Amino acid sequence: MKLAFFLIAAAMIAAALFLLLWPLMRHGRQQGRSRKVFALALALAFLLPIAAISLYLGVGTPAALDGVAHQPKSMSIDDAVGELKAHLAQQPDDLQGWMLLAQTYGVMHRAVEARDAYGQALRIDADNSAAMVGWAEADSLQREDHRIDGRALELLERAVKLDPQSQRGLWLLGISQFQHDHYAEAATTWRQLQPQLDPGSNVAKAVAEQIAVADARAGNPGKTAPEMPAVEAQGPALQVQVALSPALKDKLARGDTLFVYARAEQGPPMPLAVAKLDAAALPATVTLTDAMGMTPQFKLSSASRVFVGARISKSGQAMPQAGDLEGDAGVVDVGTRTPIRITIDKVH
């Protein structure tokens, strides 16, 4: 770069000197003043290059002769994960590295890998409450029914004992208790979370709504549809009217459980909102809202279109089983304000 620049500059200066001095010298000879003209030409030939170089060094950009530095290639998240995994292969006891890898997998919605990485963090520090909560959440996300039980529940219980201020730990523990029909315990757990939240925030409102639902179910278990929290002006609210086909009425039994749910048209199968009722309450009307999501990350307002269905479970479990009774309304916009009608008319 530098050599080319100097060659071009020298050529330009030579051309300028030729165009300037040749007419001057020819005119001097014609006038009989060849010596003076030659001296003037010599002085210009000497001073002009010096002046040009000095001017460039003074007001130019000599640093540009070194070329423009190459910008480093941006790293993709897959590249970063690859480098982090290589690092952890060399240093498998790097706790912060495993936590970072687990959180990154969480962002990438790779729940199995996130759970495994949190497991490595717990191998290094068995009392790490953040890793316990992360493991439990990742485990629930990789399950089809997204239930929190077994080791996940045990870890959450330990985590909130070690860190009673763990907001995510308290939230998930309350969800697990709610999923196991321990409504009074769920309400108590979520009440521990409330003082840590900003009053008036959407999160605080969602927690308050969940507490209201849990309290209602704890006070009158199995007959909860009319006591669902009032629909807030903000966020989607799908009013679902569910009825049982007369042809299937003889298949309804005491103790059957009705699930009314909405899940994303495209995405994970976990319901974005679900209501659980005593099937004896049919026909029933349920309003599905953000407050009925199973986790804070997946709620009704996170999708634009949802599949709305209803199922009468013989086992009381959320997962469909043979013999369950089903019906659905297909896919609807989450902004739907007119009642959505479902007739349960099929046997799973």
UniProtKB/TrEMBL annotation:
What UniProt keywords apply to this chain's record, in alphabetical order?
A: Cytochrome c-type biogenesis, Membrane, Repeat, TPR repeat, Transmembrane, Transmembrane helix
Give the matching InterPro entries: C-type_cytochrome_biogenesis (IPR051263), Ig_CycH (IPR056412), TPR-like_helical_dom_sf (IPR011990), TPR_CcmH_CycH (IPR056413)
Q: Sorted alphabetically, which PANTHER family does this protein's record hold?
A: CYTOCHROME C-TYPE BIOGENESIS PROTEIN CCMH
Q: Where is the Cytochrome c-type biogenesis protein H TPR domain?
A: 84-201
Q: Which Pfam families match?
A: Ig_CycH, TPR_CcmH_CycH
> In which organism is this protein found?
Dyella jiangningensis
Name the chain's protein.
Answer: Cytochrome C biogenesis protein CcmI
Q: Where does the record place the Cytochrome c-type biogenesis protein H Ig-like domain? A: 238-345
SUPFAM superfamilies documented for this protein: TPR-like (SSF48452)
**Would you kindly state one Gene Ontology biological process term found in this protein's UniProt entry?**
cytochrome complex assembly
User: TM spans, by residue?
Assistant: 6-25, 37-59
